[in-house]
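Schema walk-through. Below, the input block comes first and the output block second. Nothing else is stored per chain. Lengths vary across the set, and this one has 158 residues.
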Amino acid sequence: MHRVPMTSEGAQALREELERLKMTERPHIIQAIAEARAHGDLKENAEYHAARERQSFVEGRIQDIESKLSHAHVIDIKTMPPGEKVIFGVTVEILNVDTEETRTYQIVGDDEADIKKGKISVNSPIARALIGKCVGDVVSVQTPAALVDYEISAVKYL
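--- output ---
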């Protein structure tokens, strides 16, 4: 498997989730299974089956996070000298050339993307159009509705 770009904040969030799953969730589930077993017949024991299902989900998520972290190429944009070029991890302000509407996005890894928080995946069409461009450049992005032109008005290495 190839290396996957991830911001240092995204990697830290995954490490914190992994710690919580291993140190809090896993012991609670083990306790719940033990208590459910103590109630007797496991065939018709809803608590037991619910706890086993939760255990399966948590163990799967732990494996998923460990895999992501092992393949992560963590990039801390704050350690790089600021510039005007759009690269992974930067926060970019773009201006819709037609509507003059301004938007601000941080370009992040797939797992970190959250449009409501202004974080877009490096693999999204808009990020792919922006990567490698500089302040003042105009890029065209194919949206479901039409081809939209954006001017890069600012690049921040936050």
